[in-house]
Automatic annotation (TrEMBL):
Its cofactor is K(+). Residues 222-382 form the TrmE-type G domain. Belongs to the TRAFAC class TrmE-Era-EngA-EngB-Septin-like GTPase superfamily. TrmE GTPase family. Exhibits a very high intrinsic GTPase hydrolysis rate. Involved in the addition of a carboxymethylaminomethyl (cmnm) group at the wobble position (U34) of certain tRNAs, forming tRNA-cmnm(5)s(2)U34. GO terms for cellular component: cytosol. Its main location: cytoplasm. It comes from the Bacteria. Mg(2+) binds at residues 236, 257. One of its GO terms (molecular function) is GTPase activity. (6S)-5-formyl-5,6,7,8-tetrahydrofolate binds at residues 22, 87, 126, 461. Keywords: Cytoplasm, GTP-binding, Hydrolase, Magnesium, Metal-binding, Nucleotide-binding, Potassium, tRNA processing. The lineage of its organism: Bacteria, Bacillati, Bacillota, Clostridia, Eubacteriales. This is tRNA modification GTPase MnmE. It comes from Desulfofundulus australicus DSM 11792. Its EC number is 3.6.-.-.
Length: 461
């Protein structure tokens, strides 16, 4: 399968300044020789790798020029895929790109599957699996911090950490196997204690990484945040204020927002997926009822819930119903409209009723307290543990799960060591721990998991 040549349009379809048709595989150069005509007199075949050449894409059957291009030429094995790669930098329109791709396909390539270029980079050993996954994270990053986490993954920081763990495990395993080989040498009791100490140290390091994963996931996927409250308390006004644009419609009529409005905002480097919802109340209006139902679902799935109350009306029974709804959630209670009501008074009342939740007094209208809201979000996400400048190494659930499995096997190693069980059993769990780590780098991962990872990529990536 790796001996064929793949091609795809690697840029978004639409009108743009430039669009790229990417080709990788053993026929890449031969295809370019058939359809590319240099216009500079330079013999592009006689130049080095990683160069651009100016010319035309020409249909060799008709002699018709298709587009004016820059041809990028990169020779194996020092390329992204470790195969020969050519890239047609076309004018960024659907027709020139499609026509160029068609010609490439007619002359020896087949259409690439989603993520297949990156998959080849992985299969040919240029990237490990975690690095390959980082490429999609780079594309999808929502904030600078999100991008920095992805770039750290691409650079192999997590991978080399994982490999160090694996080396340590192999060291421990070597000791264990020495015990298996020379059981008569009566070193067992002492060495069991030593082994336990080494295993415990490793588990501590794993725990630290696992703990960081919470922040890592937020940087990668965004913090799912829902603004809830009864109608007219200022939820949409809050969304607009945090977004710094008039995105949602705001009126003095309760029940203004009916559909959920979602936007991503950058709050102190944290990508926050903000959803503004329909005001929560018992209602007979069919459309509004559906909206209320949606809000409840969003609250259930949220990482953070911003409950908005209205200082000018005080706490109503509807407010209490909303607060009950989010009682089990991570919530921040916001007392809005403090410019026209007793915000501090209501804040004290609410703090007595819900002592575990942070309460902030704000006025979206005057801007009072909004920076405290941003601070509270930052505190909640980072929990005083990390700052946006200390990048978490683990940002994928998949990676975290592998670390957790490794940790579980080590737990079992400890148990077996303490219980004086057969040293062979200890060795088996140590190997299982080593293999769990290999899923991160892809050394020991199942084919279907690799399939699933690359399915999420775009065509041409
Ligand atoms: N036009 C274009 N832009 C692109 C890419 C691409 O493939 N083509 N990329 C891809 O998605 C990203 C850049 N990543 C790349 C990674 C490695 C190599 C590469 O040729 N690596 C060689 C180094 C060669 C040398 O040292 O001279 C190698 O690793 O062996 C190229 C691009 C983003 N921009
Ligand atoms: N005085 C004052 N008025 C505010 C404040 N925040 C919002 N309002 C006003 O309150 C009214 C309702 O605001 P919205 O943002 O539409 O409220 P909502 O919670 O989204 O309402 P629904 O979508 O109907 O649930 C509007 O007239 C806003 O201008 C504030 O801090 N002070
Ligand atoms: Mg609204």
């Amino acid at each position: 399968m790796l001996d064929d040549t793949i091609a795809a349009i690697a840029t978004p379809l639409g009108e743009g300044a430039i669009g790229i048709v990417r080709v990788s595989g053993p026929e890449a150069i031969a295809i370019a020789e058939k359809i590319f005509v240099s216009r500079t007199g330079v013999d592009w075949r006689r130049q080095g790798s990683h160069r651009l050449f100016y010319g035309l894409v020409v249909d060799p059957d008709t002699g018709q020029p298709v587009d004016e291009v820059l041809l990028g030429v990169m020779y194996a094995p020092r390329t992204f895929t470790r195969e020969d790669v050519v890239e047609f930098n076309c004018h960024g329109g659907i027709v020139p790109l499609r026509r160029t791709l068609e010609l490439v396909l007619q002359h020896g390539a087949r259409l690439a599957e989603p993520g297949e270029f990156t998959r080849r980079a992985f299969l040919n050993g240029r990237l490990d699996l975690a690095q390959a996954e980082s490429i999609l994270d780079i594309i999808r990053a929502k904030t600078d911090a999100g991008l920095a986490v992805a770039m750290s993954l691409l650079s192999g920081e997590l991978s080399s950490r994982v490999r160090r763990f694996q080396d340590q495990l192999l060291g421990i395993l070597a000791q264990v196997e020495a015990d298996i080989d020379f059981p008569e040498e009566d070193i067992e009791v002492a060495s069991r204690e030593d082994l336990k100490i080494s295993v415990l140290a490793l588990m501590g390091d794993l725990e630290e990484l696992i703990h960081q994963a919470r922040f890592g996931k937020v940087f990668r996927e965004g913090l799912r945040t829902v603004i809830v409250g009864r109608p007219n308390v200022g939820k949409s006004s809050l969304l607009n204020a945090l977004l710094r644009e008039k995105r949602a419609i705001v009126t003095e009529i309760p029940g203004t927002t009916r559909d959920v409005i979602e936007e991503v905002v950058n709050i102190r480097g944290i990508p926050v997926r903000l959803a503004d919802t329909a005001g929560l109340r018992d209602t007979d209006d069919i459309v509004e009822k559906i909206g209320v139902e949606r809000s409840r679902e969003l609250v259930k799935a949220a990482d953070l819930v911003l409950v908005v109350l209205d200082a000018s009306t005080g706490l109503t029974s509807e407010d209490r119903a909303v607060l009950e709804l989010v009682d089990e959630q991570k919530g921040i209670i916001l007392i809005n409209k403090s410019d026209i009501g007793d915000g501090e008074g209501l804040a004290r009342q609410v703090a007595d009723l819900y002592p575990d939740k942070p309460v902030e007094v704000i006025s979206v209208k005057t801007g009072y307290g909004l920076s405290k809201v941003e601070e509270a979000i930052e505190r909640l996400v980072l929990g005083g543990q990390a700052t946006a400048s200390q990048m978490p190494l683990v940002s994928h659930v998949r990676h975290k799960q592998a670390l957790v499995r490794c940790h579980e096997h080590l737990q079992e190693v400890l148990r077996a060591l303490s219980a004086g069980e057969n040293i062979d059993l200890v060795a088996i769990d140590l190997r299982a721990a080593w293999e769990a780590l290999g899923e991160i780098t892809g050394d020991t991962v199942a084919e279907d998991i690799v399939d699933r990872i690359f399915q999420d990529f775009c065509i041409g990536k």
